[in-house]
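Figure 6 in text form: structure in, sequence out.
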């Protein structure tokens, strides 16, 4: 329990440092901000995974059912590789990440999760992953990413393009709180601030309507409670879409 409280305190301290950093952008170059964002975000996955572990294990349970063969996985916005521990043995992972400074942490995570292999790191926006071939992956994974993309419909189109027939898109994302709730009101008023603090993340609900219109054969999703330490982003959606 003490170590958990220590991690919670660390998250608060990291957030404070991140806030101070973002409040003085004129004193920092774009290059330094890119490196700093990658470093700071790489420190927090343990806390999030601890609180969301049961949800992630349930989400990826069908993916883990593929462990008898090599599984080609593309993770969009892979960050520091926080999801690698949930991928099945023999996974061959392609990590897409627009910030090149995450590559160091992705490779460190791959080394720590020896049951999988990091096939490549693709530096690109999720809306245009031209380096990933058509019909080439068994699964696409996307967690805590869609709030920050510019064109979700284009992302879903790319996901369908790269998935093999019958392949599955796995997602876990934060969304707006229920209409009239305190969380929803806070998100609506402070959305510009949240975009600044969380790398352009603007929490929406209509994204899931677009997913339903993206041409997948089946789409299943549910609302769940997010981690208490992320109370601003507590509402989440989790689910799968099959090509």
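Output sequence:
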């Amino acid at each position: 329990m003490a170590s958990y409280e220590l991690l919670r305190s660390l998250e608060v301290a990291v957030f404070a440092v991140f806030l101070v950093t973002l409040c003085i952008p004129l004193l920092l170059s774009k290059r330094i901000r890119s490196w700093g964002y990658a470093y700071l975000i790489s420190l927090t996955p343990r806390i999030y995974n601890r609180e969301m572990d049961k949800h992630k294990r349930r989400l990826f349970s069908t993916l883990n059912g593929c462990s008898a063969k090599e599984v080609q996985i593309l993770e969009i916005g892979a960050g520091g590789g926080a999801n690698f521990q949930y991928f099945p043995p023999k996974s061959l992972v392609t990590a897409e990440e627009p910030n090149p400074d995450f590559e160091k942490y992705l490779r460190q995570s791959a080394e720590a999760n020896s049951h999988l292999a990091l096939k490549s790191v693709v530096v690109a926006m999720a809306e245009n992953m031209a380096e990933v071939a058509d019909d080439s992956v068994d699964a696409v994974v996307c967690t805590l990413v869609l709030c920050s993309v510019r064109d979700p419909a284009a992302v879903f189109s790319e996901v369908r393009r790269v998935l093999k027939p019958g392949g599955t898109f796995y997602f876990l994302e934060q969304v707006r709180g229920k209409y009239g709730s305190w969380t929803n009101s806070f998100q609506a008023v402070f959305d510009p601030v949240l975009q600044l603090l969380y790398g352009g993340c603007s929490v929406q609900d209509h994204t899931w309507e677009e997913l339903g219109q993206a041409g997948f054969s089946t789409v299943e999703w549910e609302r769940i409670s997010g981690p208490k330490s992320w109370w601003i982003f507590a509402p989440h959606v989790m689910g799968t879409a099959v090509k």
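Caption detail: The chain has one domain: 2-242.
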